[in-house]
# Entry
Amino acid sequence: MVYLSTRDSSLQKSSMEIIKQGISIEGGLFVPEYIPKLKKQDIEDMRKMDYRQRAYRVLSLFLTDFSQEDLENIISAAYRNDNFDCPEIAPLVKLDSNLFIQELWHGPTYAFKDMALQILPHLMTTAAVRTGDDKEIVILVATSGDTGKAALEGFKDVDGTQVVVFYPHGGVSNIQRLQMVTQEGKNVHVVAIEGNFDDTQTAVKTIFTDREFIRSLDKHGKKFSSANSINWGRLVPQIVYYVSAYIDLINSQALEDGDEFNVVVPTGNFGNILAAYYAKNIGVPIGKLICASNSNNVLSDFINTGVYNINREFYRTISPSMDILISSNLERLLFELCGRQDEQVRKWMQDLKEIGQYKLDDQSYKKLKSHLWGGYANEEQTLAAIRDTYNQYDYIMDPHTAVGKWVYDEYKEATGDNRKTLLVSTASPFKFHEDVLRAILGPESIKDKDEFEGLEILESISGMEIPSGLKDLKSKTIVHKTVVSKDKISHAVKNILGLDGGRHEDSDSTI
Ligand SMILES: *Cc1c(COP(=O)(O)O)cnc(C)c1O
# Structure
């Protein structure tokens, strides 16, 4: 199987090449030349398999130039039992006879990003070795909070790589920030940006397509890649857990083989829900893909009107990993919706860049509506969903998952659709304990309490243990303190990589 770009469909590259590269040089995203299909026998076989074996079945459909042995080694290195705190890797929890939660946060950083970022470094370094590429891979990451830490954990001390993470200053939760700024490892760099996630992501994407920068890097024996979900190597491992959830639902007799179920995804950059869309297209019988946004509801508006419009206020919310207006991965869906016309995608992306909006044609919009339903939860509604879920089911969810729960209830109310539903839980409640406690116990409960007291209160009411990596933050030293203005991101990268001949002009922007 070869890969093309959403903005240049004449391209033909192997999966190893595109995973190394991350984003296409003209700014498009890589997509497979066709969508492979699971066979009936695959589903039957997977019923007896564990998560790792299921992952092999799915990954081998897309990453056809990796050998079986390489893929199996990569998968076992990623989904190790000492990396994930439960043997199922992505366990299902039944809330009631219709609603199932898939917890995607049992990896080392307690958010779903680990599902892909524990495996991406292995895919990338194997691809480099097998293609005879000895350049150092420089991973640039823009994070709204969780990707950064997951990338740091995934790539730390991986030979032949450097990781540089940019996060919005003041735009992540305190725990998320502490997780990143205390990161150890000889090849890791963390920089706060005075700007929001969109500023950061746009600046990083610009660097990836800056031919002069790339040439200069090349001279120094290095090359860029991306660990954001624009990298196909991030997306394909995310398809696995939707397939795995379906198999688990059959095995637990919640579904019969072939029964449709809906999927609710708390959405930001549109990576996770796009993986569900691919899962549907390879043959998992998913009905509606329910896209849940927070107050930054550009996606739910898009689904409801066909117009994507970022000319609106940006909010910092209690679900910060979804505080995004420019959802990069939507580009891959657009490519499919318009019948894979790269010219049409280029036009929409140009409109987005120039006037901050684009409008789908009727046919593409109709197709979009056939797959997707969109809704959003504001801050009060998010807190109410945490509280009500706790009261009704004795289950504690983080604010991102709660956005999904709110929208699920709205969907049911609006449509009467009572098919079984999978809600993917994207973060551990401990990671966002302050708002979780505020929702459940009221604001008084956290007054004058520090991070670590908050974790303990949540431990006592949930009966779950505080994840060790969060408990340990208390004794860790802050090692990354750089803050840079958003127009100096490229400069900061040069500095970190020592490309500017040792001139350090950033003293005005670094605190
Ligand atoms: C990244 C993230 C999201 C959004 O996922 P996308 O793939 O960007 O849509 C939702 N919740 C949490 C906790 C996240 O870390």
About this structure: Residues 502-511 have pLDDT under 50 and may be disordered. DSSP finds 22 helices and 16 strands in the chain. The pocket of pyridoxal-5'-phosphate is lined by residues 111, 113, 146, 229, 266-272, 321-322, 400, 426-427 (CB under 6 Å).
